[in-house]
Design brief:
Length: about 280
């Protein structure tokens, strides 16, 4: 694959008129949630159109990159916590483009025998993930729509690697806000949760509509990506129904079991994403 496909451009005109096609027939003029997130993180696996939207997001919220990195950091802390609690299999829904300290890297550092399945349907995410994991027989990338829980939970590619009768960690990190209300994310989470064995964990992060910047970002994302719904704290907390909350509950991401105390609260002013971890109780 030629590296030229992956060189970002800051030329907005080029981004909006480009007729070029990327690898696998990807239209380089159509933005992708995963690639915009990569651009906000400061990655390289995105196109010019994705950079345009990322730049607009960072104009609305100058510390958006801090927020995106906080989301990656809480994923690492959450997976590490679950692994240390004895979880040795993980189902990562809407996993996005590989970046530093991915789920399998954290889990397998704690337990080399840990098994991880990533689920996504973005063609570039799938291509990158499969290339990265080609020699890791305990990790797999599956092309599926996370909105179809029953399909995901019965896929042979998944059930061959993960034993759903045993506890696992279910990750929905920065995923549910890309589902429309019509997709009924509350019911979707319930369907997944009811399929989990007792002792499993449910890990969720989500955009919260608690700030003016959040509402402006929601408008930007909905108008350019068609997704990016900011929901109320009560709605997000409701996703954890049927689980036992792990302290400190649902909080702003940097404050969820930080590795070191948060000393500069101003760095997180205006951030809009909250998250937490719930444990499926014993029957």
């Amino acid at each position: 694959m030629s590296e030229e496909w992956w060189v970002p451009s800051n030329d907005e005109t080029e981004a909006e008129t480009s007729p070029e096609w990327g690898p696998g027939g990807v239209d380089m003029g159509v933005p992708s949630v995963a690639r915009v997130y990569d651009a906000i993180l400061g990655g390289k696996d995105h196109f010019a159109i994705d950079r345009v939207i990322a730049d607009k997001a960072m104009a609305v919220m100058p510390n958006a990159r801090t927020g995106a990195r906080a989301n990656r950091a809480i994923l690492e802390r959450g997976v590490r916590y679950m692994a240390r609690e004895g979880i040795d299999q993980f189902l990562d829904l809407g996993s996005g483009l590989p970046t530093a300290r991915n789920t399998h890297e954290v889990a397998q550092q704690e337990n080399p025998h840990a098994r991880v399945v990533y689920v996504d349907n973005d063609p570039i995410v799938l291509a990158h993930g499969r290339a990265l994991l080609a020699e890791n027989d305990r990790t797999r990338v599956v092309n599926a729509d996370v909105r179809d829980a029953r399909d995901v939970l019965t896929r042979p590619e998944i059930t061959e690697l993960l034993d759903l009768k045993r506890p696992l960690g279910l990750l929905m990190v920065a995923v549910l806000h890309h589902l429309a209300d019509a997709d009924d994310p509350t019911e979707l989470v319930r369907t997944y949760r009811e399929a989990l064995a007792p002792g499993s964990y449910l890990f969720i992060t989500h955009f919260c509509d608690s700030t003016p910047e959040g509402r402006e970002l929601e408008h930007l994302f909905l108008s350019t990506l068609g997704s990016g719904r900011f929901r109320s704290r009560a709605t997000i907390e409701g996703f954890f129904a049927g689980t036992e909350p792990v302290e400190p509950g649902v909080v702003l991401l940097p404050y969820w079991r930080p590795d070191t105390p948060v000393t500069d609260e101003s760095a997180y002013a205006g951030l809009t994403m909250i998250g937490g971890l719930g444990r499926v109780p014993q029957a």
